[in-house]
UniProtKB/TrEMBL annotation:
Keywords: Coiled coil. Residues 264-286 are annotated as: Disordered. Residues 265-286 have a biased composition (Basic and acidic residues). This is CFA99 protein. Residues 85-178, 208-238 form a coiled coil. It comes from Stercorarius parasiticus. InterPro entries: CFAP99.
Length: 306
């Protein structure tokens, strides 16, 4: 999978060609400096790379410590939450018992109140029997009024419908008259001479025939300009394609050389890693991992009790 073919567009080819061109110029400049007696900065760059590697290892150890500290804090928070749940459970049991006692007392009180209300309702029902007959008379009077209002509304609606039908009939007759007038044939004709001008008194005034001739000349000129532009675009495209082909050949050579250099560098790095010793873990990381294991076991034990 290291040699997957990638289809490059024109911009990518030019960009990569410019990159390799800069690298070649830098390499030529470095060789020229070496021929003039300048020192090779590769040793300094290697030392700088090693220092950066050590700094990176320290940063990674610090990041790992922070991650483990966050995990330890999470375990402690979960354990504290479980303790709070256990305390709340005890309080809830106590409140449930108190609530049951209060509900029992409330039920007894409600039974006594219902008994008193029942007696009061029986007294009120006897007074309502006399008011029922008056309510029936009032309802009959209201029904009579509603019937009279409905009859009056039906008469008004009938009159409104008759007026609206008369308006529609008059509008329909007017539309028929307008359509009859529009259907009459138009017999007016006018002869047009294409060689005459409009007679507006302008200096640039031309007839329709002259305008057609001028338009034909303009179209021929436009067509010639388009042909010339098309030939120019074709030449530029061919030149660009040739440039891209040259750039592709140059990119292939550079990639091959870079691949060989990368393979040699990877082999050298692998040899050094096999000969070197693996770095020991940081003491802080080991302590944090031990604490996390202890807190995890304590949390699982507390969860089992819950």
């Amino acid at each position: 999978i290291d040699n997957i073919p990638i289809k490059l567009n024109a911009a990518a080819i030019l960009r990569e060609g410019a990159l390799y061109q800069r690298k070649m110029e830098q390499e030529l400049k470095r060789i020229e400096n070496l021929l003039q007696g300048a020192g090779d900065p590769s040793e300094f760059l290697e030392w700088q790379k090693q220092m950066r590697g050590k700094d990176m290892e320290e940063q990674l150890a610090e990041i790992e410590c922070r991650r483990l500290q966050g995990k330890l804090s999470h375990e402690e928070a979960v354990l504290a939450h479980q303790n709070v749940i256990q305390e709340n459970k005890k309080k809830a049991d106590l409140m449930r018992e108190e609530k049951a006692e209060m509900m029992h007392q409330y039920a007894e009180k409600r039974l006594q109140e219902q008994k008193e209300m029942r007696e009061l309702v029986e007294q009120v029902v006897e007074g309502h029997k006399n008011a029922k007959q008056a309510k029936i008379k009032l309802q009959k009077y209201k029904q009579q009024i509603v019937q009279e209002v409905c009859e009056e509304n039906r008469e008004l609606l009938r009159q409104a419908l008759e007026e609206e039908e008369e308006k529609l009939r008059k509008r329909y007759e007017l539309i028929q008259q307008i359509r009859a007038i529009e259907s009459l044939p138009n017999l007016r004709h006018k002869f047009v001479d294409l060689t005459e001008t409009g007679g507006h008194g302008l200096i640039c005034e031309m007839s329709i025939v002259e305008l057609r001739e001028r338009l034909a000349l303009l179209r021929e000129a436009q067509k010639a300009a388009e042909e010339e532009k098309r030939d120019q675009i074709i030449h530029e495209k061919q030149a660009k394609e040739q440039l891209l082909l040259d750039k592709l050949d140059q990119i292939s050579l550079f990639r091959a050389e870079l691949g060989r250099a990368a393979a040699l560098k990877q082999e050298e790095k692998k040899r050094k890693s096999q000969s070197g010793e693996r770095p020991m873990k940081d003491e802080r990381i080991l302590n944090l991992q031990k604490k996390i294991v202890e807190k995890t076991m304590e949390r699982k034990k507390q969860a089992g009790l819950l």
